[in-house]
TrEMBL record, chain A:
SUPFAM superfamilies linked to this entry: Cysteine proteinases
Listed name of the protein: DUF3857 and transglutaminase domain-containing protein
Pfam family, one: DUF3857
Annotated signal peptide: 1-21
From TrEMBL, chain B:
Domain DUF3857 as annotated: residue spans: 139-226
Secretion signal, residue range per the UniProt entry: 1-20
Domain of life, source organism: Bacteria
Pfam assignment, any one: DUF3857
Name this polypeptide is given: DUF3857 domain-containing protein
Taxonomic lineage from the root: Bacteria, Pseudomonadati, Bacteroidota, Cytophagia, Cytophagales
Residue stretches spanning the membrane: none
């Protein structure tokens, strides 16, 4: 036996004698058009997806993907990960890998497929989401992987989206999407960024509707600075149900009203509070003068008595735990805490609604023109009015520390779906612009004769400018806070002599005051008779990398803000400014910048800097101007004041 | 006799002073004082404090380890609310082995209107999650946890992993007031006790050495939180803990000497057999040049290249193979670290080298103690090859971007154990890096009379720096890589980017590009100030913290050199040539030299930093930080360029 194995092993691998039925080569790299290799790390050779709507409550999604990995930067495409959960079953996952000539190297075996629970991932306490993944990466590029899988989904609230070009450096040779649906369940779809001439082919035969989309020969795309996400720039077809059914809960997604109606019905009756809780609420708001004060007291009670724990199991991803369970356990996920809060508000006689939202600082606003489930979070909306004008209040119920009525970059500046007894209503959450998002800083720099510098800085951040610092203040201990700040100061060598974070008095937008004391030994060491010092110690805005080649994508400037810095530079005896830098004034569509220097009567130098950045979506041609704006700011931010040792 | 044993054990246990001590915490009963703020005024830095962590372990029926834990925690800040959750990890990674959790209980205590309110854990909230084939997690969330709450939980865990008697960490990421562990070993289980502590034990009691059951009790009081620092291996190397190793069972030595472990590996893994079955490699090895007295290294490099080109490492660290080496080589072309490096050993043997596997522990996995024969200390295998000159090499084939004789950075962790063909041939080897981390920048700069700068940069990343840059280049692709390089030169226009030695991994990776900087907004009159070294040197001191608890462990020697050749405009000269500077670290630990020379319009500035020690003790930290401070100060020094006449 042993000798026999050795003999086999000694034979050449490609021996026809051993493999009389060797399959014909397929997906040879040579068949890829040269234009698709340009700037590509991987080429999607084929993406054939079929979605078959079986009923209002079930769909089957089959995927056949073939990707050629051209170089190691495309290696991620040599792996396939498929997620599944209680409502979505993975029927099979198959794979194979081919060499550059298209000869089969290896067929994926079941034992090589890994299975992992994602239950504790991503801040979640528990979910039933699991993944199966397979790795067919090869030591030599190029190689080609082929994967096939099928998902049977009983969660028809979501139809799969189709966007074959989902990664940077990926080209597409051929991709098709075929959707089969009973005529009684008409398909809703939206085509986005499709190349000119790509049209859906729609056919009907005996009660069955078929839709077919095809894409071919899309060259590789590149992600650019300050650009929309790839999902906003590459061809896509987005699908959604008309009518759907999840675990016996029927609904319609054809309108925002209908989608909200489904969510309302799914959660109806889950807002019953124990009598003791109702009594507590009523005692709490008994002497409150108005609805806003009532809401504030209830919000404070919520923050002090509950915490966020995310448990998403099966339908529990969409259906809330009853309000009574939050009352019993003192915890819940976003839906449960929002539902509980509306119940508490109702007990106080303040009407409020749960609102569904696509949360996240980097999450673009939802597509208002295509009703579908585009949400990952729930908040509470309290429709209040002041002096006859609407003064709507929004509450984030999963945070024990968020300011009353503040949404910030996580849920502000976007649309949310109110879930009301009359169905869904799409409304805007609060917008935060340059008036709210401010950074106001006062720095005193004291220079000694040997070049050592001590500094004190008081910084007030408000609105979105304080979002990160609010987290820092509430989520981390003093030691970690100091480390965080120390790691981010762009100063050569320094010691933090003082550090404190404190909440600023409540205003329209929340604020945090940071107090810093810094010691910088040898920061401005004299060079001969002169000392060079940049008074802009803490607010230098870096330039952007130069644009290489043509800019392809639009310019998205997502945040508006206003920064105002005042710095006093105190000189040691025997020094005077030789020259003060010239003032700079820039006014552009992207923002406004100014800096100026002044000798003060007490011998100190004052530096004042003001920067306003605007929010906007601009065409690609605007990018060169933006680069120029940022370069000029960066140059002005780095200018040094030259001090001269006076003869004495 | 077997049936009698548990009873005897119970009696024996009761008589032993170490276990007869009262428990340090009374589960279900709390002193209401703990629900006020007063006892915690000194803990303003902590989000929560472990009031008591108490564990016991024993082997009650000879077949299972029983582990009991009671933990009580005070919540001090909103950021600490997650301490109201707890989880237990249940392993099932070996056939016939299992762990189970019972007797889970918990309470949250709150002070409500001056009264203690005790809320029980709802048993139904425990969620079991099968993470993978290897282990599951069972998680619990206590009710009504708020700032000021005290939470406590207890559970019992039964495990039939007898060889792995649970150890105990006294230290956490939050302060610990009292942490106590008690262990009872039946006489037939002889465990060796190992302590890793920075501070003194408050209790260290042992009894019953000659009895049926030996009992042990350890405790620590007021243990400060453990925090990670940059440039370190892993906090696991420093956490205060006690752990055990089964030395003998029922009088039989159970392989807990290095020699026994070596034998175990050689036989039970059948490693020896696989490693000598290299027939499937024969044809490919036959194409190597025949050995001559001076081509040993070339042949080693060629054998490694054969493996690197044939097999992709999945990145999974392992010491086991699950697929035969032949299959990996010929079919899947993919393997975990052990499979790739066992294949390397087999190929080296096939080529006539006396190669052997060498076990090691990656830096993130922690330091290996030679005094503690325990296989679990290791998580990685490489290949060891003796050279004709009496020296030896440790080779690794998991990363095609490394030169053949470079150990991956993760493996630079002091020492490894070579498993020889016989137990007698096994021994320790030092895992000394054969390469440095070097970065050279040669810059030709031309200064214009208006203050604009333009020139050419040549960079070389050698040794470990080359490995890091090649990894970035591979992940990002050429264009993004060039953009990333340009990000290090803010304010400069970077063009004409060229790469050399991309695939010649034994050579430094070289980059060439042109740089240009606009004239300053207000054109200088007569005098120009500039700091050429500062443009190319580091922006910040890498040692930002003022103090250091643990050693700075770079792993290798570091060298950073910048040479700027600056050409002044015609009719201009340096007003003054800056002084040279040389700084030495004590104990020949390193050196920084900076100098400027000027000949007419040609000015040369040189900055060279050499850190000779791969590891600096915490005591050396202050001088290391000061060296960098002075380097940054010197590189920032201004040149004053004046118009002549």
């Amino acid at each position: 036996m042993k000798a026999f194995i050795s003999l086999l092993a000694a034979l050449p691998l490609t021996s026809f004698l051993l493999h009389p039925a060797a399959p014909a080569p397929k997906y040879a790299v040579a068949d890829i058009p040269a234009a698709l290799r340009e700037g590509a790390h991987a080429v999607l050779r084929a993406d054939d997806e079929v979605i078959t709507v079986k009923s209002a409550g079930r769909l089957v999604h089959t995927v056949h993907r073939v990707v050629t990995v051209l170089d190691a930067a495309g290696d991620d495409q040599g792996r396939q990960m498929v997620s599944y959960d209680a409502l979505r079953t993975l029927s099979y996952l198959r794979g194979a890998v081919y060499d550059a000539d298209g000869r089969l190297l290896h067929q994926l075996r079941p034992a090589e497929i890994h299975d992992q629970g994602m239950g504790d991932a991503g801040g979640s306490f528990m979910t039933d989401v699991r993944v199966r993944y397979a790795d067919l990466r090869q030591p030599q590029t190029p190689y080609t992987v082929e994967f096939e899988y099928e998902i049977v989904s009983d969660n028809t609230l979501f139809y799969p989206d189709w966007q074959p070009q989902e990664v940077e450096g990926g080209a597409v040779q051929s991709a098709t999407l075929r959707v089969l649906t009973p005529a009684a369940l008409p398909l809703r779809y939206q085509e986005r960024q499709l190349p000119a001439g790509s049209k859906v082919v729609h056919t009907s035969t005996s009660g069955q509707e078929t839709y077919l989309w095809q894409l071919a020969n899309l060259p590789a795309v590149e992600e650019e600075e300050d650009a929309p996400p790839l999902s906003y720039t590459t061809p896509a077809v987005v699908l959604a149900p008309g009518t759907f059914e999840v675990q016996g809960h029927k609904g319609s997604a054809a309108t925002w009203q209908g989608l909200g109606q489904w969510s309302y019905a799914l959660n109806a009756g889950r807002d019953q509070l124990p009598p003791a809780t109702v009594a507590k609420v009523q005692a709490l708001v008994k002497d409150a003068p108005d609805a806003r004060t009532k809401a504030q007291r209830i919000y404070e009670m919520l923050q002090g008595s509950t915490r966020y724990i995310s448990v998403q199991l099966g339908l529990g991803g969409w259906q809330t735990f009853p309000a009574s369970s939050v009352a019993t356990n003192g915890y819940g996920d976003c839906k449960a805490l929002s539902n509980y809060t509306t119940a508490l508000l109702a007990a106080a006689g303040v009407p409020a609604y749960v609102a569904l939202v696509g949360a996240g600082a980097d999450q673009p606003d939802l597509r208002a023109d295509f009703p579908s489930s585009q949400f990952n979070h729930a908040i509470v909306c309290v429709p209040l009015a002041q002096a006859g004008r609407p003064d709507t209040l929004w509450l984030e119920c999963t945070s024990q520390t968020e300011a009353f009525g503040y949404m910030g970059s996580f849920t502000g500046n976007r649309h949310a779906l109110l879930v009301t007894p009359d169905g869904g209503k799409l409304v805007a959450t609060p917008r935060y612009g340059a008036a709210e998002n401010r950074l106001t800083r006062r720095v005193d720099l004291t220079l000694d004769a040997t070049g050592g510098v001590t500094a004190t800085a008081r910084t007030l951040r408000t609105g979105q400018e304080q979002d990160g610092y609010a987290q820092l203040m509430h989520q981390m201990g003093p030691v970690e806070q100091k480390k965080y700040v120390t790691d981010r100061l762009k100063l050569p060598t320094f010691t933090l002599t003082k550090f404190n974070l404190a909440a600023a008095p409540a205003k329209a937008a929340p604020g945090i005051v940071e107090t810093l004391g810094l010691s910088l030994p040898g920061f401005a060491a004299p060079s001969g008779k002169r000392v060079f010092i940049n008074p802009n110690l803490l607010s230098r805005l870096p330039a952007l990398p130069a644009q290489v080649g043509e800019r392809h994508t639009p310019v998205w400037l997502t945040d508006a803000c206003l920064h105002a810095d005042t710095v006093r530079l105190h000189l040691p005896a025997g020094f005077r400014p030789e020259t003060l830098p010239a003032p700079v004034q820039l006014s552009t569509p992207y923002g406004v910048y100014s800096s100026q220097y002044q000798n003060l009567p007490d011998g100190s130098v004052q530096y004042i800097r003001r920067l306003e950045l605007k929010r906007g979506q601009l065409p690609a041609s605007a990018y060169s101007g933006y680069i120029d704006f940022r370069r000029k700011i960066s140059a002005a931010d780095k200018v040094q004041v030259v001090l001269l040792k006076t003869e004495s | 006799m077997r049936r009698l044993l548990p009873l005897l054990l119970v009696q024996a246990l009761a008589r032993h002073p170490a276990l007869a001590q009262p428990e340090p915490v009374k589960f279900g009963h709390i002193d209401s004082q703990l629900l006020t703020a007063a006892p915690f005024v000194a803990d303003s830095a902590a989000e929560a404090v472990v009031l008591c962590d108490y564990g016991t372990a024993s082997i009650p029926n000879g077949g299972e380890v029983r582990f009991d834990r009671i933990t009580r925690i005070k919540i001090l800040k909103k950021s600490g609310l997650d301490w109201g959750n707890f989880e237990a990890l249940l392993r099932h990674d070996q056939p016939g082995h299992a762990e189970r959790l019972t007797n889970v209980q918990g309470f949250t205590y709150n002070l409500v209107n001056g009264k203690v309110e005790q809320m029980p854990l709802q048993a139904t909230t425990g969620v079991l999650l099968k993470k993978s084939e290897l282990y599951s997690l069972q998680r619990f969330a206590l009710p009504h946890v708020r700032v000021g709450s005290v939470v406590e939980f207890r559970y019992t865990l039964y495990s039939n992993y007898l060889s792995n008697f649970r150890g105990w960490d006294f230290q956490r990421s939050i302060p610990v007031r009292w942490s106590e562990y008690r262990a009872a070993f039946p006489h037939q289980f002889n465990y060796k006790i190992l302590l890793q502590t920075k501070q003194a034990l408050a209790v260290d009691e042992h009894a019953g050495a000659e009895a049926l059951v030996s009992t042990h009790r350890w405790a620590m009081r007021d243990v400060p939180p453990l925090r990670a620092e940059p440039f370190m291996t892993t906090t696991a190397d420093y956490v205060d803990k006690v752990f055990f190793e089964l030395a003998s069972y029922g009088g039989t030595d159970v392989a807990r000497s290095w020699e026994k472990i070596d034998e175990f590996l050689l036989h039970d893994w059948e490693l020896g057999q696989q490693l000598d079955h290299f027939n499937f490699l024969k044809d490919d090895l036959a194409r190597l040049p025949p050995p001559t007295p001076d081509n040993t290294l070339q042949r080693l490099a060629a054998v490694r290249a054969l493996v690197v080109q044939a097999v992709k490492c999945t990145g999974e660290f392992s010491m086991r193979t699950s697929t035969p080496l032949r299959k990996i080589y010929q079919q899947t072309h993919q393997g975990n670290t052990a499979e790739v490096n066992f294949l390397l050993v087999a190929a080296l043997r096939g080529a006539g080298f006396a190669a052997n596997p060498v076990l090691l522990s990656t830096r993130a996995h922690g330091r290996v103690r030679a005094t503690m024969p325990e296989l679990g200390q290791f998580n990685y295998v490489a290949a060891h090859v003796p050279l004709p000159d009496g020296q030896a090499l440790v080779l690794d084939a998991t990363d095609p971007l490394l030169p053949y004789d470079m150990l991956p950075e993760r493996c630079l962790n002091q020492q490894g154990r070579v498993i020889g063909g016989s137990a007698a041939a096994s021994r320790w080897v030092e895992l000394k890096p054969r390469h440095r981390r070097t970065h050279l920048q040669q810059v030709q700069l031309r200064l214009a009379p208006d203050g604009a700068l333009s020139g050419q940069v040549h960079e070389e990343f050698g040794g470990y720096a080359g490995a890091q840059q090649r990894a970035s280049l591979q992940a990002a692709g050429d264009k993004k890589f060039a953009a990333d390089v340009a990000k290090f030169l803010p304010g400069w226009t970077v063009t004409g980017f060229a790469l050399t030695n991309r695939d010649s991994v034994h050579m430094p990776l070289a980059l060439d590009y042109a740089v240009a900087q606009f004239a300053p907004a207000s054109a200088p009159v007569g005098t120009i100030y500039l700091s050429p070294l500062q443009y190319f040197g580091p922006e910040r001191n890498p040692f930002r913290a003022e103090t250091r608890q643990f050693p700075v462990d770079f792993g290798y020697v570091r060298e950073e050199t910048i040479v700027v050749n600056l050409t002044l405009p015609a009719g201009y000269a340096l007003a003054e040539t800056p002084k040279s500077k040389a700084l030495d670290l004590p104990d020949n630990g390193g050196r920084f030299v900076c100098s400027t020379t000027a000949t007419g319009a040609a000015v040369q500035l040189t900055s060279r930093l050499l850190l000779r020690k791969p590891i600096y003790s915490a005591a050396e930290y202050a001088t290391l930080r000061e060296l960098y401070r002075q380097l940054l100060e010197k590189q920032a020094e201004r040149l004053v360029v004046k118009k002549l006449g």
